[in-house]
């Protein structure tokens, strides 16, 4: 057997709950996402301080991915488990007898509002022709994923584009990523991807707020031009005044059965007051303000704050903070997803707070730190943002 053979290749699907960022996140299996490997991010996960583990996705290893073009010119992304992957990840692949699967893409995206969760409906159609060259003797699955672009057209009130049955941002990133890969990489070139815990897998209707934290966004390796661009973005947004800005959001609207989606361009334009209103909107399910979530979110943010204050030399430039809750309030979402209701002490699992995106994170002893002189003390820009975030949520809780 050659490398990676004997185990089924894995179908990489666009991760439909990506609300921010510019790197394409792909779905590896139900509980795992993957993204292109950046050595600085890997370095962070490999030496993650114990206290931070509950606030970051679990790191699950590395997987090799390669790009394929079929005879029709469709681009496919295939992950080969078992290449350069820690043993603990062996259990990640589904039953060994799976047909080899690949990802089909022709930028013909589709959402179906009528699907069970009002999310994307994937229609899998078996492809009878076997591609001898890519996976000898194995069947390929083709994933037809269409995204009706007519839903992007505004209605008379200009309301339509933000009401989607799922978030289009991930597909936007994914399309760009495939185009970049196809122009840069020849077909069989293996690219390494990081495997990370899918932190929203336990939610039926994940409501996600992606916040870019801190007063500085550029990494130490940024060119002068990029540095200037990032500084300007910070000055013109709430990053300068509050140390935090909205980078993306999806909120399930119980009244319409759709997700309300906002992207980073929306977030950049917000004033401090607009930022407060957006936080409020994030907790509105179309019928009411979910005030029951404020206290658990604040508790979790306070716990994170005390951890960040203790991390000397860490600078989380350009990283994001996710605030997550389930848009479905009924008890059956607990019953049918979890074998037992999870409550971690003070943190009922109905809310979660996680830090993500560490490609520009630097710390003392990092193998891939572009800045050889480590910083002293904790990340004050990040702390400033967290404190302001807590203050605003506290005011909401007190009905101000």
Give an overview in words:
By secondary structure, this protein is an alpha+beta fold. It has a single domain (10-84, 171-329, 348-398), classed as Inositol polyphosphate kinase (D-amino Acid Aminotransferase, Chain A, domain 1), CATH 3.30.470. It has nine helices and 19 strands. It has a seven-stranded antiparallel beta sheet. A six-stranded antiparallel beta sheet has the order 9-13-12-11-15-18. Strands 7-8 form a two-stranded antiparallel sheet. The longest helix is centred in the last third of the chain and has 18 residues, at 380-397. The chain starts with 9 loop residues before the first strand and ends with a helix. Residues 1-6, 83-158, 160-164 and 331-348 have low confidence and may be disordered. One of its GO terms (cellular component) is nucleus. Keywords: Kinase, Transferase. It comes from Platysteira castanea.
């Amino acid at each position: 057997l050659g490398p990676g053979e004997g185990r089924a290749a894995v179908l990489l699907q666009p991760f439909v709950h990506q609300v921010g960022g510019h790197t394409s996140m792909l779905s590896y299996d139900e509980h795992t996402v993957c993204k292109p490997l950046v050595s600085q991010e890997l370095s962070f996960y490999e030496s993650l301080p114990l206290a931070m583990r509950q606030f970051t996705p679990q790191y699950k290893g590395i997987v090799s991915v390669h790009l394929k073009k079929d005879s029709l010119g469709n681009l496919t992304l295939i992950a080969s488990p078992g290449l350069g992957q820690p043993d603990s990840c062996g259990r990640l692949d589904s039953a060994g007898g799976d047909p080899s699967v690949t990802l089909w893409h022709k930028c013909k995206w589709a959402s179906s509002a009528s699907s069970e969760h009002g999310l994307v409906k994937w229609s899998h159609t078996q492809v009878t022709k076997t591609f001898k060259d890519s996976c000898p003797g194995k069947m390929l699955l083709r994933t037809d994923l269409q995204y009706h672009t007519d839903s992007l057209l505004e209605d008379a009130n200009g309301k339509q584009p933000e009401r989607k049955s799922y978030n289009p941002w991930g597909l936007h990133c994914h399309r760009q990523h495939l185009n970049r890969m196809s122009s840069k990489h020849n077909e069989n070139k293996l690219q390494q991807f990081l495997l990370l815990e899918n932190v929203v897998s336990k939610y039926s209707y994940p409501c996600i707020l992606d916040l870019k934290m801190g007063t500085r966004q550029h990494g130490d390796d940024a060119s002068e031009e990029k540095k200037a661009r990032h500084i300007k973005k910070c000055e013109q947004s709430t990053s300068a005044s509050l140390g935090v800005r909205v980078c993306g959001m999806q909120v399930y609207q119980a009244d319409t059965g759709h997700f309300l989606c906002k992207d980073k361009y929306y977030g950049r334009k917000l004033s401090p007051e607009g930022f407060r209103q957006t936080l409020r909107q994030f907790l509105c399910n179309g019928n009411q303000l979910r005030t029951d979530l404020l206290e658990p979110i604040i508790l979790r943010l306070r716990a994170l704050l005390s951890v960040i204050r203790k991390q000397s030399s860490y600078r989380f430039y350009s990283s994001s903070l996710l605030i997550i809750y389930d848009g479905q309030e009924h008890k059956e979402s607990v019953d049918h997803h979890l074998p037992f209701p999870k409550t971690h002490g003070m943190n009922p699992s109905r809310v979660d707070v996680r830090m993500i995106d560490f490609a520009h994170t630097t710390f003392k002893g990092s193998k891939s730190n572009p800045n050889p002189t480590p910083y002293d003390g904790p990340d004050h820009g990040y702390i400033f943002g967290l404190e302001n975030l807590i203050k605003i949520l506290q005011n909401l809780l007190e009905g101000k």
